[in-house]
Amino acid sequence: MSSDVLTFTVHSNSIPPTTSLQNFKDKLHAAAGQCFVDTAFWGGVVPGNSVELRPMVQAGVAGFKCFLIHSGVDEFPHVGESELHAALKQLQGTGSVLLFHAEKEVQQPLAEDRDPCEYSTFLRSRPDNMEMEAVRTVTELCLQYQVRCHIVHLSSAQSLKLIRAARQAGAPLTVETTHHYLTLSAEGIPSGATQFKCCPPIRGIANQEQLWCALRAGDIDMVVSDHSPCTPDLKQLESGDFSQAWGGISSLQFGLSLFWTSASQRGFLLPDVVRLLCKEPARLCCLDNQKGRLLPGYDADLVIWDPEKEFMVKEQNIHHKNKLTPYLGLTLQGEVNATIVRGKLVYFQGSFCPGPVGQQLLINQTPVHAAL
Questions:
Q1: What are residue 152's DSSP bridge partners?
Q2: Of 6, 283, 306, 313, which residue is the least packed, with the fewest Cβ within 10 Å?
Q3: What is the pLDDT of residue 283?
Q4: How far apart are CA 94 and CA 30, in angstroms?
């Protein structure tokens, strides 16, 4: 059986960040001839770079991402409301999209002396209202400027009411969640298991069920990997200290299988998989005229897989460089046998094609003209 595949690279966790036209050109040059799949690039919004946004749109970025809280890397600082207003004014009329890491610092009770190796300690440090306050900001700005906005990796189901209200009021707002929020739960995370740390955090089973309901209802538009690898030392496995460990989960390779394992048991069908993992991400990136669907004239991007086949995640079948992932030892359903990019076989049963065949995707935005 087959499904479309769509892969992008993000701006953060690589130097230089794509926050200027020159940095974007440097990224394009560095990636030329190096990619095994078709690749588009996100830009970034940081303090002081609003004048760079339109030139990057014209040069072909898929859109922009910003953080409303410390990003975890100093070279990509978060933005405040004045910088958001400046950025959104620049993006008005371009057809581009601004992606938000939707967490904000909030006033919290005085910290108690809790064990930093317990996951519950970390979870208390990133409460639901951090997401809710950020989502509130995003919805207000989206309604004000009528620029496409997108909430990345939604973790807290408590924000869904705000999202529904904004959309009903006319906000051009889309939302994603991730495989780890749909698969993993706080109740199953052992002490010191920092491979489970990500931001926003993995929350409880009840919250997870609400995310699945929102997917079914259409309140969440797509499911993505939020692939955030790191070297093992950054996960602080020896100390098991969640407060010091890198926040990110590696899962890109297993996304289809992770989603299908749970979704198939909940009544989701293959057309739902294509919509949530392919069609809607392509629409977000303005690539829905060539990616995300199987139609005449579209790119022949295919995954050949066995949706009934079960397999266990082991180090020897992980293809990303650093093998640390919370999915080690998990049995998944739906094994990928082959990947085809524009009709070319790039992966087959554990082996890759001898050389890169991916193309760089430069996005042609359709300008949006203000109503008279």
A1: 101
A2: 306
A3: 97
A4: 27
